[in-house]
Structure formats: C-alpha cells, structure tokens
Amino acid sequence: MFNALVLNKIEDEKASGKVEVIETSNLPDGDVLIKIDYSTINYKDALAITSSSPIIKDYPMVPGIDFAGTVEETSNNNFKTGDKVILNGYGVGEKHWGGMSQKARVNGNWLVKLPENFTTKQAMAIGTAGYTAMLCVLALEKNGVTPDKGEILVTGATGGVGSVAISLLSKLGYQVSASSGRAEYTEYLKSLGASNIIDRSELSEKGRPLGKENWAGAIDSVGSYTLANICASIKYGGTVAACGLAQGFDLPATVMPFILRSVTLAGVDSVYCPIEERIVAWERLAKDLNLANLDSMISTISLSEVVSSAHNMLSGKTYGRIIVDVNA
C-alpha cells in the first residue's frame, strides 16, 4: 500500500484530485517497479491537474510527468534492484500513471540511470523543465550558435525551463538576456547569470516582419507573438529553440527571417525524445549545470499541496522549480 495523488473526472466536470491509498497490484503494467523519492510540477503538470488543457487521456490518473527514485523490482535487463533512475515524459502522467506517487510501475525503456553526481532530489529540481532547457542548448550548439556569436535570449525566464537555461548558458560562457514580466525577480535572474533583463511586453504584441538583429539565438517557452517577434530579431544565421506555448500555440509570423536572414527555428520535444539523446542531455546537465544555482531555484512541497501549487503556477505566483516530496 502507498499514497498517490489521484485525479478523477465525472463527465464534463473539471477533474478533481486528492491523495489516496493505492495497492501495488493496482499499478499499470510495466517491467520495472520504482520506489519514488521525488516528483516535480512542470507547466504541463499544472495544465493537467487544473484541467486547463486536455492533457490527460484517461481517468483515474496519477499525474506527474517526472519522477526519480530507486528500482525495487525489475525484469528489464538494463536495470537491477537498487539502481537510481529518472523518468521524464513518455506519456507518463498523461496516459500512464505518473510520478505524484510513492511507487510507479513503468516500461524500463523509458528510464535513464541517475548521473552519479546528482541526488534524486537534484534530479527533480532539474526535471523535465531543466532537461528540456538542456535539449534547447544542444539545439543551439548543433546549429553553430557559440558564445562568440552574440547574446542569447531566454523567455519565460522565471519558469523552470528559463531558470535552468540561464544557468546553463551562463556557465557555458554565453551572454544571456532574460525576458520576464516579473520585475520583483530581477535579482534572482541576475544571480542565475542573466546580464540583461527585458520586460516580456516588449515581445508579446504583434510586431514587424523583420526587426533589429538583437540576438544570436534564443530559447523560447512562450510561443505566439513572442516567438514571432524573436524570430524577426535574430541575427543572420542564428537559431531559435522553441519548446513551449505559455502565450499560445499559434505562430503569427512571416517567412522573412528565414529566407532573408537564414534564421533556423528548431523545435524541441522532450516527451518522446530518443533515449540516446536523453542520456546525452543528462550527462551534459551533470557536467554543465551550476548546482549552487539549482539550490536557489527550488521549493519543496508534499503531495497534499500539489493541486494548490498547480493553480498558483498558472496564476504566475510561482518561480523556479517546485519539487514534490512524495513521502513527506
């Protein structure tokens, strides 16, 4: 028996969640059973838990697209009892019971072994948000956006993706400009390594097809007009790594930045990213992330606080990374 946050939904009503006691035999199929130490709330989790977007495909559902913990039982040859593991995405918390729980049973091919210099708590301080930020940095590097090419813009800067992206880029030697609508977190963003802070309102309204060439690259978790304006202001040959849609899923842009300035728009998916790329991303996080910065990003809650925290996240009342101690 163990505790889990369970979401239930009756017909067209919004889903409601509460902590319930579950029997291990009721877990869905999988070849690895994990004792979970920590999960985390990502923006996608907040959308799912609050029924703000049709993320969840079936009910009842244990939400949580991330978790880190210890293998208890396994028939998967890649793992043994006692291994520390991480899971990000693969439909967990959407179609398959997820991480807001003290136990999970999953397909072992979805798991990544925890890098030796991370604790399970640190892994969830990073979570899908931080792992996505690393995938975005890798996309910039793949397209030749090096620190000498110029400044990098990070939008949604106080969120999980933005916070980790700033820390990573700064440690790698990039000059970082952070876009945020929350002036009260200016010092927080500077402490992560941002050298310039711009108000998100400068990017969030309809703009010109081409603007001044401001940035060599960008990591955008916002979408819509913000992404369109970023593309219009990227330097010749630059790259924008797009990974989110906080403002909207539309892209009211023109082809002009792409055909006149050779700008690359690189889409970044974290959910079904191949396992080989996941391993590379986590290895790079272990090498390139400033763990001192990580400590300043996190707050820790219990399972019983998840629903209220999800609402606060969508209301813009949170920042950084929220860790869920499922055993608290």
What is the CATH homology-level superfamily of the largest domain? Medium-chain alcohol dehydrogenases, catalytic domain
pLDDT averaged residue by residue: 94
Form type: globular
Uncertain regions: pLDDT < 50 for 5+ in a row? none
CATH hierarchy, class of the largest domain: Alpha Beta
CATH topology-level name of the largest domain: Quinone Oxidoreductase, Chain A, domain 1
Q: Can you write the helix and strand succession as a string? A: EEEHEEEEHEHEHEEHEHEHHEHE
Quaternary organisation: single chain
CATH architecture of the largest domain: Alpha-Beta Complex
Q: Biggest β-sheet: count, sense, barrel?
A: 7 strands, mixed
Total count of helical runs of at least 4 residues: 9
The amount of beta strand, in percent, is 25-35%
Radius of gyration: 20 Å
Q: What's the structural domain tally?
A: 2
Q: What proportion of the residues is helical, as a percent range?
A: 25-40%
End-to-end C-alpha gap: 16 Å
Give the structural class. Answer: alpha/beta
Could you give the count of β-strands? 15
